[in-house]
User: Which sequence fits this backbone?
């Protein structure tokens, strides 16, 4: 099948890219969007599911409700990518494109951390978060560890959020005084680009008796003991893990990837293959792997495609900016606004946790839901 624009993956990037082109070109958009899954789930909703604040059914947004002029949505699995020919093979056929956009996200490499599946729990996959919704209520005393198995990983604030929300969960049920909580991360601070945000989180940890263990990653789980990459052993009764991330196998096999991800030109998101872009978590861009950055990258690629169609020259470059909401517990949310490209090093501005930001975060999700699915 021949198509003008072929988009692989319907996450933040794929949905936004298709929506922008549909809004601008209507029935003439000529976009084919390929996605293997049946529903979209906001990453932050997994925390709500695992702590019983909502159900999985309530946060699933079925792709059947995504209907835009000029967009052909195809439920198929990508089995091969030929970036030189801009040809994609799926379990149902082949597609040739004028422009190919790879937005397949990052997969989880559970086998990279021995013992993770047998002895622990991970909360980054939808299935893992749903399983934990049944596991966490059984934890009433002992040692809980939130641990990161490798970097980079999606949504850098999420491990900190998990530790703070676990504190709230145990406190509300009267179990907190019988439980220890540790957070093990490979970074020296919770949010390296923003010292003020890190200081705010460290103060929240100290106030709640959560121990922050910096500069270590979880290398393996042996029985009820975590073994860190430096040999440190940490006993636990409940483990909430962030698994190692990598590009999907089909991307690794395509020749697009280097060191596990697809390298792109940071300002345009173009790969070394003409007419082929990579956006979001599958790409090495120089910004965090988070939905808000993927969405912004998708808009840049959409503008580049539109500029090419209209013979308008080059589109505005990607600016590496984004805002992330952070659950601090106690009914409050903070925000960090990060700029990765303007200066010699990334900078971040911290907005203190508040009830007002809870509403702002809720509107962030609601606005995307309306834009993509209504």
Assistant:
């Amino acid at each position: 099948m021949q198509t003008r624009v072929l988009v692989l993956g319907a996450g933040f990037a794929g949905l936004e890219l298709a929506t922008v082109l549909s809004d601008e070109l209507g029935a003439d958009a000529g976009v084919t969007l390929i996605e293997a899954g049946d529903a979209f789930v906001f990453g932050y909703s997994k925390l709500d599911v695992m702590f019983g604040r909502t159900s999985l059914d309530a946060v699933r947004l079925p792709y059947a409700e995504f209907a835009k002029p000029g967009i052909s949505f195809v439920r198929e699995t990508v089995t091969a990518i030929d970036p030189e020919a801009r040809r994609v093979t799926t379990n149902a056929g082949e597609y040739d494109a004028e422009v190919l956009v790879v937005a397949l996200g990052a997969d989880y490499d559970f086998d990279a951390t021995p013992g993770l599946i047998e002895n622990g729990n991970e909360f980054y996959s939808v299935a893992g978060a749903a399983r934990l919704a049944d596991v966490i209520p059984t934890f009433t005393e002992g040692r809980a560890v939130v641990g990161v198995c490798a970097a980079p990983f999606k949504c850098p604030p999420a491990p900190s959020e998990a530790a703070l929300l676990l504190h709230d969960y145990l406190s509300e049920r009267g179990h907190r005084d019988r439980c220890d909580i540790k957070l093990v991360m490979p970074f020296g601070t919770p949010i390296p680009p923003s010292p003020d945000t890190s200081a705010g989180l460290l103060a929240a940890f100290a106030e709640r008796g959560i121990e922050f263990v910096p500069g270590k990653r979880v290398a393996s789980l042996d029985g009820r003991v975590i073994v860190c990459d430096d040999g440190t052993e940490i006993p636990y009764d409940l483990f909430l893990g962030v698994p190692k991330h990598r590009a999907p196998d089909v991307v690794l096999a395509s020749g697009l990837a280097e060191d596990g991800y697809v390298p792109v030109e940071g300002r345009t998101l173009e790969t070394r293959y003409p007419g082929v872009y990579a956006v979001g978590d599958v790409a090495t861009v120089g910004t965090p792997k988070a939905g808000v950055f993927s969405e912004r990258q998708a808009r840049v690629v959409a503008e580049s495609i539109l500029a090419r169609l209209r013979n308008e020259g080059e589109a505005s470059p990607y600016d590496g900016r984004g805002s992330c909401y952070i659950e601090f517990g106690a009914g409050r949310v903070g925000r960090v606004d990060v700029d990765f490209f303007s200066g010699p090093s990334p900078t971040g501005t911290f907005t203190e946790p508040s009830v007002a930001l809870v509403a702002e975060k809720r509107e962030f999700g609601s606005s995307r839901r309306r834009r993509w699915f209504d």
Summary: The chain has two domains: 2-106+247-310, 110-244.
